[in-house]
Amino acid sequence: MRILITNDDGIAAPGLEVLEAIARDVAGEGGEVWTVAPAFEQSGVGHCINYVKPSMVSKMGERRYAVEGSPADCVLAGLGEIVDGPVDLVLSGVNRGNNAGENTVYSGTIGAAMEAALQGVRGIAMSQFYGPENVDLDNPFEASAVHGADCVRRLVSDAPWGGDHYKLFYNVNFPPLPADKVRGLAAVAQGYRGDGRMGVAPQTSPSGRKYLWIQGSAQGEPTQPGTDVKANVEGWVSVTPMRCDLTDQATLAALRGVLDDYRG
């Protein structure tokens, strides 16, 4: 198996080392793991691409490259130029912090898996929830390091990957716990915290210029039962199937009823 890995925390991020180990385990003897990651941190960039400017690529080692661009750029670079041959799987992460609830729509980690799906390649985004029970561990990524490879293997071998147009990809979040407290895998929907909106914090520099810091909100607030954050805080690895199609099908039917009688 040939696996392409990337992230949004950057080429030097500790979570990428965890993902490299997971990918080597999954690829197996004779497999290949190619790392194509952002040269600098790209957290919060979502699915953006550097459409109006080129991205410099630097070779950092054997099958290891840094790209001055977004995670989606890295996937495009890997699939279109860098990797020597077809890619069987794209893994993105392991992100430092959760990408559940509202975080999902901002995440560059998710953006990379999304781009893989758009390119017709299986993609899995992986993130490590932080909390009081794991943040001070010698390895805060312990849950993902121990359970990540088994989770990926299960998805690759048994999960649906279909779609005639917008193909599936998966969002995986590991709970904020030591590895031995993880309860298992749970198939859940994307949740809604309600207080998970991004905001701004204004600050005035010594020169009198005004700057805005983008800031998040509390991450431990559970979502509804059967959704990602709720599962994570209860000790489960959340697995959420996703597509790039943003259409709300239920509303579409109602909207047709509203608009069908209009003739311009």
From TrEMBL:
The keyword Ubl conjugation does not apply. Its main location: cytoplasm. It is found in: Cytoplasm. Its EC number is 3.1.3.5. Signal peptide: none annotated. A divalent metal cation binds at residues 8-9, 43, 95. GO terms for molecular function: 3'-nucleotidase activity; 5'-nucleotidase activity; exopolyphosphatase activity; metal ion binding; nucleotide binding. It comes from the Bacteria. Its cofactor is a divalent metal cation. Nucleotidase that shows phosphatase activity on nucleoside 5'-monophosphates. This is 5'-nucleotidase SurE.
